[in-house]
Amino acid sequence: MAQDIVLEWLQSAGALAIIISIIINIVISILAIIPSVFLTAANITFFGFWHGTVISFLGESVGAIVSFYLYRMGVKTFAPNILDRYKPLRKLQNTSGWEAFYLIVAFRLFPFAPSGLVTLAGSLSSMSLVSFTLASSIGKIPALLIEATSVYYVLEWNWVGQVILIIFFIMVVGYLIKRGKRVDRS
Fold first, then answer.
1. Residue 81 needs a FRET pair 20 to 30 A away by CA distance; which of 1, 42, 87, 137 works?
2. pTM of the prediction?
């Protein structure tokens, strides 16, 4: 399991464990398709709830900044129409100023918005790196607290963790059913 591998890395890293965790989060952010929940779980297990949550937040924030910069440099050149399939993210791509700022915060708050796509859309918009960083970080705080709390209760495997897993399972199944119906109509 990915969490166990990361946990071993953190344990063997000693004083460099925080840096290793942040680097892993940067790689996850750049790749854009790997969920970071296993790293959050490893951080909470290794560093404790609050320290692990803060380290996950720092890693995700730095990862979003690095990804934003890399995407802005590369995607506009190699794949400028990559967001054509994602209508809400296209809106972000075509906005600027406070509207773009609020959209980034809103997308970060929404737990099922793919983080990599939000960063990609932000990088293709006209918003500055500073605006993106602030909006992204503000939106990540409550989202990561919810994720960390959920992970904590699942790791503890008490009734709250079981309820969280059941709700998550129902949401995933509902999403897949809805997506399947949308594909059938096409």
1. 137
2. 0.76
